[in-house]
Amino acid sequence: MKTRQETVTIRFSEMKDAAALMELDELVWDRNTAPEPLKWSSRDHYLLQCPPGTQLVALHEGELCGYVGFRSPTGLNSNRHVLELNIAVHPAHQRQGIGQRLIEAAKDMARVEGIAKLRLRVLSSNPGALSFYRNCGFKEEGRLIREFYVDGRYVDDILMCYFL
Q1: Pfam families under this entry (predicted)?
Q2: 147-161 burial, b for 16+ CB within 10 Å, e for fewer?
């Protein structure tokens, strides 16, 4: 019997993935996981911010179930060795190794591209994500204290990194 992890395919995002990626963003990015819920105004707006090839997507039996996005944090030549990541896995597919496979695929892709550092941001109100990132080898490198005010409380923005 195959586990879900064994039947997952990871590839670069394509134009045809836009609708499923937009739906996943709306499902995953809420007040617990982001300073504000993420809602795209249109497919064109989404594609402008997340063009094809700027994510690795995970597919289980042909259905998109997660992604890891990557981009240069500043666009400066002196910062080209760094990629900023964001990851989302459909709740029905969480805790099955898919997120870990996506992070490992991002690390492999980054090594091939000569990237030296991966970075990401996570809210202190999201202990599950913090634990996940630590298990993937990320370390806290900074904390913006009381950076966001979400649902009547202050939340820290934790900066994490992984050196390749």
Answers
A1: Acetyltransf_1
A2: bbeeeeeebebbbbb
CA distances from residue 116 to 56, 64, 82, 103, 112 in whole angstroms, order as listed: 18, 29, 6, 15, 10
For residue 91, the enclosing domain spans 5-163
Tens of pLDDT along 2-51?
A: 444 568 999 999 999 999 999 999 999 988 888 888 889 899 999 999 99
| Sheet architecture: strand order including 82-89 | 8-12, 55-60, 63-71, 82-89, 117-123, 153-163, 139-150
- Name the residue with tokens 């898919």: 98
Q: What is the pTM of this model?
A: 0.91
pLDDT category at 1 given cuts 50, 70, 90 is: very low
Q: How many domains does the chain have?
A: 1
